[in-house]
Design the sequence.
């Protein structure tokens, strides 16, 4: 059953990805991307990552995509790419490269996972709850990345202001 | 070690002088010239003390100074001279004074000119006295920069091309030498010694002949470009013709000697077995250089180019002497290096004199100058004789010793080289005939002034030196005897010691070459 | 539990689509979206590994990748706005990446 | 598991600089009128304070934040390179931005925040921190590259942005695969995993992970064939930012490369050294050959920075502490000579006109002797001619490569170095050997006291570290001793 749901989500995700790639109108690309993101959120749920499921919907499908769509609307991007140059050498090269890339990524899967299992087992999660477990780690062992992320967001803020504000 | 640091003093005095020069205002050109002259003159006088205090009985290094520099890598400030470098150092300080005098007429950017000149002197002296490979390499490369500017800014019409060619040629050679220096450093460590770039310590390292083969090739390339040996000589005629007079003098007098000095000091004593293997090849190339240089010189219609090609020929002699690998040959090679500095240097000065008056160097533009400028003609003739090796003048002694040495090693080489002597007489005298004799038929040449006091001032010392070195060579040779004897003795001993180390198979060198590409992870 | 290979395979395919997009498309906003697609693929890989190894690290990666994606989107879109203001010619929304 | 004051001690310099950045932003907001010339100096003051609080220059390695951040001599050494880069960039930017009318607090704040990102990259001992620090740095640089907001600047910024984000994708996927193969992405943890499980070294997943991480870093250091963003981004960005990108980003990225490849992937040297061997060769050669063809000095320096990455990669290939020390030295030398050269470029420009095409330099050597001298010094140093820091850097790297038996790579390296002499000399040739055109392109120099100071400091650095390198070499070797 789970597997069947997975395949449905996976199919939607891939279709969405292809949509991003092929759509001529940026708005259509954006909508396809939202489709992919929502499908992925579903798959996260299947992988027992409830918290990630939630923020995927909120941050990604919600905030980031809204921003992108907003900019598309703001700038009124409707121009469609010229028909010529669609299959230049660079493009064929790019596709071949990406195809190779996927093969490279698929081959190692046959060997399976070799990493040491961690401590996030079912019973631990049942005891403390998955979000609690995550947040505890986030604020202890992974405190430094969290701190760096705060600087990162500051940089994003200042950078966006510096670039886009009308009068500085 | 408690003695006065003569070597450091003479080396860094010009640098110090250059720094002070920066403070002299650009406008007072006279002051700049006088200051530069004073600095070079003082340097020369101090360097005379080396001559006086040099102990001819001792073959090893004298006036040694040593200070740790980058201790962890075994790099030190380590300088000293022996009979090989003594005269080259003196030649450098001597020619520097002469060159400043001959540059009196420079009016374009005098301050920068003199600045680069002083820096060049520091570079040259530093390279001659260094006994640490890295220190040597640094001076060796640093020397290029001022020379590059001297050619590029104050040179002739094609100066930019000549300057870049000069720089790139020398750079390629010396960078490969750097790789060999590094390899030598690690071979020394691998042999169980403390990490060091100390030349005298590295002399004691015995290497297998097939390793020496490659190392010598790298060193040889660097020095052969500098000498320059045929067929790597093509930068020389360009650089010489385009350089200003003083630049040519220094180039011929000192920079080219760096090549032969490099062979004597580094390439040969470090890799004796490779020298033995390469010697026949080197002798053939040297002989080709002698004859080629002479033949090309013969067809030149520009006096300066002619002198430049004669340099190629002369340095062929020097190399022939060195690779004869016997006392006469090596001593002759060293002596001829000094001679070449004096006679070719003087020739360039003389060409500069006439160029300043007529702004041309084409032989066809002259003729019958002996009538207009008798004194000039006399000096020119003397120097020509010295250059072609007339007995009683300096060239004779060097060429004689070289021929003797070459004869002992290879009669064929000596015979071919002898034709070079004859050709030299031919092209030089023919040029003199066309320039100085015959009718004084060009209007522009009739009113030419003879030598000025300043010109006498820098030509007389050169003529005196030509006679001194020709009539009484003992003054000079005596100081080199002990050093060269020791040099040959060590050379033979090391050759014997290394011979047994590892017999190279028929294709061993090829194998080595392939192994070098991908060493894998065979860290020691 | 979903087999490891399935999710990772999906992730690889999505990543490949993103790569093709970046190399082939020229519209600046679509380029931005293709990069987002790549990041999503990476997130899926992290989630999968985390699930199979019972390890929390992968989930934290996803959390931080999203933070980065948000900051990148903000700055990236600001650059796009900047680019639009700077040039108003035709094809203003296009850029060629594989040149020079 | 919780953090302590000892952890905070390691983070002090980063906090100081972040505080300086906030202060700069705040100062502009509350400062009366339009006087804001002091802002860059506020930043420099922050850097100086940070330098005094930097721990761990001597003594054994420490680590904090549950093994996330190192306080070792290696990190400290790189921090000092970055302080130099940051301070020089701020000095160079001052007059330049004022002249271009873009002297805003955001710029200085972004430089400082990027600096924090760079420092964290050098100090991070967990791939998660490495990634986040890298992004912090990159996002700040994207914004800086587009800071002039004209077409060229925005285009440069966008190109850098997309390819930067693209390469982050590769890096992240690589990290994900390593995570799957090793179960952790802590640098020491990866090393332990490889060391304890011999079979892991041959696992396709681990190798694919290493490969993708290599690609990700190759983009960041602009190694061929992942360099195509470099020339346009470098040329379009404000010159001071180009200097910052070329030196700071390179230093931080190579510091991270050293940590990841020399420590985490230590046991896999056989696998990655072959790949990097080819990358190093391609990077040096292509960088130099394309640089030769350039007629614009700024673009030429962009290509030459690719070539320099190639030389540094030679050191990475060698893979020994000795090579690492050489790389650190090279990065410092490169920081001085490159920022110096870009400072000279800024000086010849005027508002709206960069004047960086080669012909603009004709005759400048004698017209502006100090500029000519400085530029020549930097060019000679980049060409690796003694007695400059550039020479010592190359010397140390090639020395390490020869030690490991990489003779051919070294020979290709020195030949490249000789080829590069050609285009560096061409700048000098134009400055000194060519007469100034009748209608001079450069009438006056855009030089204020701060610019002069930056150039002099850079020049002195190049000379000082070229003539008395001893102490610094020892420090660099010590830094590597604690790393590996």
Sequence:
């Amino acid at each position: 059953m789970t597997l069947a749901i997975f395949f449905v989500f996976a199919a939607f995700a891939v279709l969405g990805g292809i949509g991003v790639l092929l759509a001529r109108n940026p708005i259509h690309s954006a909508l396809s991307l939202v489709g992919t993101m929502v499908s992925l959120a579903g798959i996260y749920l299947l992988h027992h990552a409830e918290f990630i499921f939630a923020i995927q919907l909120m941050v990604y499908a919600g905030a980031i995509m809204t921003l992108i769509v907003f900019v598309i609307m703001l700038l009124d991007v409707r121009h469609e790419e010229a028909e010529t140059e669609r299959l230049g050498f660079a493009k064929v090269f790019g596709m071949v490269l990406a195809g190779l890339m996927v093969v490279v990524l698929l081959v190692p899967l046959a060997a399976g996972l070799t990493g040491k299992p961690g401590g996030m087992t079912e019973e631990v999660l049942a005891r403390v709850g998955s979000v609690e477990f995550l947040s505890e780690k986030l604020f202890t062992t992974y405190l430094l990345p969290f701190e760096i992320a705060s600087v990162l967001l500051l940089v994003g803020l200042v950078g966006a202001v510096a670039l886009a504000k009308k009068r500085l | 070690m408690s003695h006065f640091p003569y070597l450091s003093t003479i080396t860094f005095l010009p640098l110090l002088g250059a720094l002070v020069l920066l403070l002299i205002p650009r406008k007072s050109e006279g002051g700049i010239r006088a200051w530069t002259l004073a600095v070079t003159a003082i340097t020369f006088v101090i360097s005379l003390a080396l001559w006086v205090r040099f102990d001819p009985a001792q073959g090893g290094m004298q006036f040694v100074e040593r200070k740790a520099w980058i201790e962890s890598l075994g790099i030190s400030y380590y300088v000293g001279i022996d009979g090989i470098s003594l005269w080259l150092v003196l030649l450098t300080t001597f020619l520097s004074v002469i060159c400043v005098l001959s540059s009196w007429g420079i009016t374009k950017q005098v301050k920068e000119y003199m600045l680069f000149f002083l820096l060049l002197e520091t570079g040259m002296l530093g390279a001659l006295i260094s006994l640490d490979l890295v220190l040597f390499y640094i001076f060796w490369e640093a020397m290029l920069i001022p020379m590059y500017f001297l050619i590029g800014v104050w040179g002739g019409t094609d100066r930019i091309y000549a300057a870049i060619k000069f720089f790139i040629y020398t750079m390629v050679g010396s960078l490969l030498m750097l790789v060999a220096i590094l390899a030598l450093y690690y071979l020394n460590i691998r042999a169980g010694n403390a990490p060091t770039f100390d030349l005298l310590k590295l002399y004691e390292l015995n290497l297998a002949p097939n390793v020496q083969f490659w190392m010598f090739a790298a060193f040889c390339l660097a020095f052969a470009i500098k000498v320059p040996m045929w067929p790597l000589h093509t930068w020389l005629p360009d650089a010489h013709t385009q350089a200003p007079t003083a630049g040519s003098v220094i180039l011929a007098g000192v920079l080219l000697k760096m090549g032969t000095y490099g062979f004597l000091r580094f390439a040969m004593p470090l890799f004796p077995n490779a020298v033995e293997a390469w010697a026949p090849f080197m002798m053939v190339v040297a002989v080709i250089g002698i004859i080629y240089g002479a033949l090309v010189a013969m067809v030149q219609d520009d006096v300066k180019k002619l002198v430049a090609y004669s340099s190629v020929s002369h340095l062929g002699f020097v190399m022939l002497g060195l690779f004869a690998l016997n006392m006469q040959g090596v001593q002759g090679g060293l002596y001829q290096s000094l001679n070449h500095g004096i006679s070719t240097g003087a020739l360039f000065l003389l060409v500069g004199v006439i160029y300043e008056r007529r702004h041309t160097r084409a032989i066809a533009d002259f003729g019958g100058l002996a009538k207009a400028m008798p004194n000039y003609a006399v000096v020119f003739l003397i120097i020509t004789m010295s250059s072609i090796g007339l007995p009683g003048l300096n060239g004779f002694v060097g060429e004689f010793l070289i021929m003797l040495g070459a004869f002992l090693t290879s009669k064929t080489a000596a015979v071919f080289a002898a034709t070079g002597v004859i050709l030299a007489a031919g092209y030089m005298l023919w040029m003199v005939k066309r320039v100085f004799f015959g009718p004084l038929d060009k209007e522009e040449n009739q009113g030419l002034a003879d030598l000025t006091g300043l010109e006498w001032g820098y030509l007389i010392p050169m003529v005196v030196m030509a006679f001194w070195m020709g009539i009484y060579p003992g003054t000079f040779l005596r100081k080199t005897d002990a050093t060269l004897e020791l040099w040959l003795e060590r050379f033979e001993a090391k050759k014997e010691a290394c011979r047994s180390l590892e017999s190279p198979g028929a294709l061993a060198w090829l194998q080595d070459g392939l192994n070098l590409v991908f060493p894998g992870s065979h860290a020691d | 539990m979903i087999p490891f290979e399935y999710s990772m395979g999906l992730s690889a395919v999505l990543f490949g689509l993103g790569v093709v997009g970046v190399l082939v498309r020229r519209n600046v906003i679509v380029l931005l979206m293709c990069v987002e697609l790549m990041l999503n693929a990476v997130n899926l890989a992290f989630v999968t590994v985390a699930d199979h190894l019972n390890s929390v690290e992968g989930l934290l990666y996803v959390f931080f990748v999203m933070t980065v994606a948000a900051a990148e989107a903000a700055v990236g879109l600001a650059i796009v706005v900047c680019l639009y203001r700077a040039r108003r010619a035709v094809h203003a929304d296009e850029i060629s990446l594989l040149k020079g | 598991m919780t953090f302590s004051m000892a952890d905070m001690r390691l983070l002090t310099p980063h906090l100081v600089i972040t505080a300086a950045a906030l202060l700069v932003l705040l100062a502009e907001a509350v400062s009366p009128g339009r006087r804001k010339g002091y802002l860059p100096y506020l930043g420099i003051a922050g850097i100086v304070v940070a330098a005094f609080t930097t721990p761990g220059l001597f003594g054994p390695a420490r680590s904090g934040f549950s093994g996330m951040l190192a306080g070792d001599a290696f990190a400290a050494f790189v921090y000092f390179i970055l302080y130099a880069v940051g301070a020089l960039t701020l000095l160079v930017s001052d007059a330049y931005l004022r002249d271009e009318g873009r002297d805003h607090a955001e710029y200085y704040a972004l430089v400082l925040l990027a600096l924090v990102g760079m420092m964290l990259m050098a100090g991070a001992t967990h791939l998660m921190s490495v990634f986040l620090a890298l992004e912090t740095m990159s996002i700040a640089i994207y914004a800086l590259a587009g800071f002039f907001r004209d077409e060229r600047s925005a285009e440069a910024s966008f190109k850098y942005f997309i390819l930067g984000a693209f390469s982050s994708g590769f890096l992240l996927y690589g990290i994900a695969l390593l995570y799957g193969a090793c179960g952790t992405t802590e640098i020491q943890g990866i090393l332990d995993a490889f060391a304890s499980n011999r079979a892991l070294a041959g696992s396709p997943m681990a190798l694919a992970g290493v490969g993708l991480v290599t690609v990700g870093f190759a983009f960041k250091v602009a190694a061929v064939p992942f360099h195509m963003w470099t020339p346009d981004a470098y040329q379009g960005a404000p010159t001071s930012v180009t200097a910052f990108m070329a030196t700071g980003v390179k230093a931080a990225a190579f510091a991270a490369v050293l940590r990841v490849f020399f420590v985490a992937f230590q046991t896999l040297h056989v696998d990655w050294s072959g790949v990097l061997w080819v990358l190093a060769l391609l990077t040096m050669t292509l960088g130099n050959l394309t640089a030769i063809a350039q007629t614009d000095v700024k673009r030429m320096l962009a290509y030459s920075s690719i070539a320099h990455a190639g030389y540094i990669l030679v050191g990475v290939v060698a893979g020994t502490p000795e090579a690492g020390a050489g790389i650190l030295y090279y990065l410092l030398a490169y920081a001085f000579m490159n920022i110096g050269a870009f400072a000279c470029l800024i000086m010849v420009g005027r508002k709206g006109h960069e004047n960086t095409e080669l012909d603009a330099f004709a005759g400048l050597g004698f017209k502006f002797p100090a500029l000519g001298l400085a530029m020549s010094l930097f060019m000679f140093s980049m060409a690796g001619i003694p007695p400059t820091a550039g020479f010592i850097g190359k010397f140390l790297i090639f020395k390490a490569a020869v030690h490991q038996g990489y003779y051919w790579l070294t020979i290709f390296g020195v030949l490249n170095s000789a080829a590069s002499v050609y285009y560096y000399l061409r700048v000098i040739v134009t400055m000194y050997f060519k007469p100034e055109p009748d209608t001079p392109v450069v009438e006056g120099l855009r030089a204020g006291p701060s610019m002069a100071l930056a150039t002099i400091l850079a020049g002195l650095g190049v000379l000082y570290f070229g003539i008395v390198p001893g102490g610094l070499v020892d420090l660099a070797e010590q830094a590597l001793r604690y790393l590996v």
Q: What stands out?
A: The interface with chain B takes residues 269-270, 273-274, 277, 320, 366, 380, 385-387, 391, 395, 398-399, 402-408, 410-411, 414-415, 417-418, 421-422, 425, 429, 432-434, 468-470, 473-474, 477 of chain D (CB under 8 Å). The mean pLDDT of chain D is 89. Chain D has one domain: 5-483. The beta strands of chain D are 63-64, 69-70.
